[in-house]
Amino acid sequence: MKNILKKSDLLISSKFGIYSNLYKDIYFDKHNGIKETQHNFIRANNLASRFKRSDKFTISELGFGTGLSFLLTLKLWKENKKPNAKLIYISFESAPLTKLELKNVYKKIKGVKTLSNQLIKKLPILYQSTHRIFFELENVELILIYDDFNILKNLNFKADAWFLDGFAPAKNITAWNSKLFEQIYLFTNSRGTFSTFTSAGHVRRGLSNSGFSVSKVVGFGKKKESIIGIKKPIFSNSNKISTFKNYIGPVAIIGSGISGASLAYSLRKRNIECFLVDKSSKYASGASGNKLAIQMPKLTLDNSSYGLLSLEAFSYSRKLAKELNSIPPSKGLIVLPSKERDKVKYSKLLQNNWPVDLITNKIENDNFLRNINYVYMKSSGILDNNKFIRNLIKNVKFIPKFDVKNIVNTKNEFKILIDHKGNKLKAKTVIWANGYEMKNLSKHIPINSVSGQVTYLKQNQLVNDLKLNFSYGHHFTQAFRGYHQIGSSFNRNDDKNYKEIDEINNLKSIPHFLKKIITEFKIERKYRVGVRASTKDRMPFFCSLNSVINKNTKNEYLLGGMGSWGFVYAPLYAEFLVKSLLNEPVVINSNLEHLLGVNRLL
Question: Which of 137, 178, 189, 220 has the fewest CB atoms lying closer than 10 Å?
């Protein structure tokens, strides 16, 4: 995996305004940036009127740039959207501005301070991946695809409007070619529109030849003309504004670990009624119940689907954990490669242009790591499991001690969940997210039980200030609420009993240099055993129940196979499952799609 993003090379001057030294072009008119953007994109696509009539609307943009088009669209959406309507804004950028650069840009623009502050706070680290950002109060999803425009051919979505804004055609030819125009046409809904600031003849002809009905309109300021277009309807009734209604709720989520909690969060932020049921008396009493989890990506040397999806899942889950205030104060993660192949892998990854916040081989005050082969991942690290899950399920009804034994379909397409005592619950949709116990539904569900034991050591004064965590096959965490967490064992069974050999192996696994630092630790008989649900390729899946069981039932789904990586993968996989249920565009590289479903495991 190599980070191909370019440096933005921003220049702000009285002569040029907001200017890109990389493309030798301005981002927008230096005197009237807001009015220019409103003219060229907001009004040109008739967004105010269309927002008022739409339950779901998708905009795609070539060139996120300063984010001004997004901010003005967000403002318009807030003022005109229907109740519970959803806006999806997909934007591509290969040379993203840093947060500091954006702050300097917005100092020059009046009227966007509040929204720009929200945006900057939510922006990710600058590396090549798909980053998903939510503005929950407005029900807006910003999908930032940090990659070149060629990635479009590997995606699958339909936009209602396009902002074609990749600098002037003479300055950035990658944004203005016939192959890209054809892709844009394919990725546009019937009666979907586009607008752009340019009126260049080859652009007008290219978009027309791809299938759009193209028109010239009055340009902004000194620019006499610009062009707009519409995708001609294929069917006579397709020019009607499509309405989308959510009929999946209430949703019963069976299981209250990280998978169930992630589902609840994805549903709740869309105002979809849901509730969690669990046979235990407390949420997250299974494998998700450890004090801490490590969130880090599985980086690979090649552009393998496993590495790309791991990075995207990490970006999503880590940012979400931060927004939900679930990350203890920490300096990050030290990875200690022990196998020669891992040493080679990380050595090469360090040369692949990744930002130092993601991966580097240097850390301040690293005397204790002298002569140690390590990689420092500042943005990775621990997660307060209980707090994260508690915040994910906030305002979601939790029904404990409800062990689902049967589900009965009613004539009106509702489902009645019945427990072992005969108690009943009613739902429209059911999602099984109960970990390794999911295999009790059928032997055909492709998950295996893996028992893991963690050991807890009482912290001592020598390591009070050691806010680092360590991954070396096992893990050793910084002190958290008085204890270090060490683990985890790996046993292919569902045995929940304490094993002395597992505790011995956990303690033996601690690297020698760390043992020197923690020589005075006090061993207390504190441990926890959890059973994880793993798959043969150690990647999760989601699917309909019918796809693995020959059972003629509607609206029943599975989300599972998280293994020991649930706090990395579950939030994103849950989001993808909810999107698929609501017919929202998943927007994922087609090369990764096979890792979402269950077919690869059957």
Answer: 137
